[in-house]
Each structure stands twice: as C-alpha cells, then as structure tokens.
Design goal:
Elements (H helix, E strand, L loop, with lengths): L10 H18 L1 H10 L21 E5 L2 E4 L4 E3 L3 H4 L8 H11 L11 H13 L3 E5 L2 H16 L3 E5 L38 H5 L1 E4 L4 H10 L4 E6 L15 H11 L3 E5 L11 H6 L5 E4 L10 E5 L1 H8 L13 H14 L6
Parallel strand pairs: 5-6, 5-7, 7-8, 8-9
Antiparallel strand pairs: 1-2, 2-3, 4-10, 9-10
Helix pairs in contact: 4-12, 5-12, 6-11, 8-9
Amino acid sequence: MASTDHVEIDLELVDELIRREEQALADKQPRSIAHQKEASHRLPGGVSSSWQTAPPHPIYVSHGKGSKVWDLDGNEFVDYHNGYGVMIVGHAHPKIVEAVQRRVELGTHFAQPTEDALVVAENLAERTGLPFWRFGNSGTEATLDASRLMRAATGRDMLLKCEGIYHGHHDALMVSVYPSPDRWGPHERPNSVAQTPGLPQSYVELTRVVPFNDPEGVKRIFEEFPDQIAGMIIEPCMTNLGVTLPEPGYLASIKETCHANGAFLAFDEVKTGAAIAWGGAIEAFGVTPDLVCFAKAIGGGLPCGAIGGVEEIMNLVERGKVDQVGTFNGNPLTLAASRAALTEILTKDAY
C-alpha cells in the first residue's frame, strides 16, 4: 500500500461494535454496575480516584493472585492493567504476604525509623548509583520533593518538563499533560496549559514545556529564560503515549544543557524504576541524573515513593535546609514489602 493511500473507516460500524462489547461486559457484571450506583451515594462516581473509572462502568475487583484478578461477579481476568504498573511482582506474592504478615505482628506504624529503611536505600543506591535516599508514599510525593529540592538548591523558581508527560497530581507539574489541540501551541514551543481547573495561573507559568526527544528545544528554553530555571524533570522513556524511547544521545544532551545553565536534571522513574531493568532507566539508557523518583514497582503492592539524589542536593535535607517530611514516610509495612520485593523477587536474575 502506498503511503498516500488511506483506509475508510466505517464509524457507524465502530460505534456498533463498541455498543456490543459494552453490553457484553454489562451482562457479565451486574454486581459492579449495582455497586457503582450504591457507592455513588458517598464516593463521587462511585470510586476513590477519577482514574478508577472508564466507560461503560468501573470494574470492582474482589481479589487477585499472580497475574489474575477477579471481579465482584467472579469473572476472571488476566491483569494487563497491573495496578498502573505497581504489581510487577504479581498479586499476593508469597514473599510479600509473608513479609507484611510478619511486620503486622510487630507494629504497623511508629513515625520513627526502622532498620528496613537502610536495607531498601542500600539496594536502590546499588541499582542507580545515586547515594542518598528518602522515602514517601507515592510517585506524586517523590516528584514534588524533586521539584522543591531543585528549586532550593538553585534559588530559582522555574521548572522544565516535556509536553505529554504526567508527573503526579501536585500543582507544580500538572501542566501540559493532555492539552487540547486548540491550546497546545506550536510544536517547537508548546504552551504551558493547566491539566485541571484549580491550578493558579502563576504556578502554571512557572512550569515551561518542551517537546520530548528535542534537545535543541531544551537549549532554546534555557536561552529564553536565562538563570531562571531550577531544573528539568522527565520520564527517561515517555509512557503516556505507549512507550516512547529516547533517541540516542538525547538524555545525555539535556543533562549537559541543564548543568551548563546551572540547573539540575531529575528522572521520573515512577513507572520505569525497577521495571524496565534492574537499575531502571538509568541502567537501560546509561545516563545518571541528579535526582531520581521511584514508586510503584518498588513497593511490592503497598503505597510507596522514594527519591534518590547526589550529595550536593540531598545534603540540603540532611542539614535541615529543606524539609522532606511525612507522617507515613518510611512506614514499616511499606518498607517490609519493599525489602522483600527488591531483595528477594526483583533480583538481577528476574530481568
């Protein structure tokens, strides 16, 4: 077929196929449909997160084991959703179950450090080459910490990100994730567009946007805002458009540009960390950033987040210049599951 040829799509047929499939799903899930109506009396949309629902209705899960999950109606599914990439160890992995059960009997929360924190930090340092680590409870918290640390370390307010990448739901980075065509601006210089109502425009303007895989675009934005950009945060491989790999030399180039302009580079490895390779994207692509954000896979299925960095930046935390705090940071249950996931399951042989 020549490149100029095109295929006519019968949109009416597409609509009909969607209707049939949605009806087939509805016929299999009367309890999920009924539960959504009941749950909506207390939970907006009947769910705990806006991303837990999609047409035609949420699928309420009863339990999971290995690669399978079961809904309220007893239907079995192969879990390709994988909890947004969290459950790469599988559901109810025996080593995770054992670690969490053992920890529950010893206490579930102290807001004081436990020994597992060092074990997990040592493992992450070995995987990434970044020496200092702190823990949180989500990827959002990790990228929030990265944003604050880069700003504190440079005394600058502006951040740089790539269009189309999601970095969590805090105000600093909910910018130009899914902008509409009428607002996204020119390709070579995308507009900064709020992802949701409720973001102060002043915050949005502090986050500038460039295209992914465009090292010259990064240079241009530093030239446009000299001595104003604290750092750039990026997914080393973009995961909101399938999986978009970095072009050879791209990550090294933007790191060089950041450093040449007195700024830092942070990798958002919330999805890739301990997933695409033992050492995540740092190992896979051979570039070590100044900061890296991990979550999802490293927690073995429990809420988790972690940020690792070079001494120059993390020393701000140690000296008390920057607060990196949280009631549940380093929670014993999370770290017990994380220790089991990283040291007993996601070993080098697993990759």
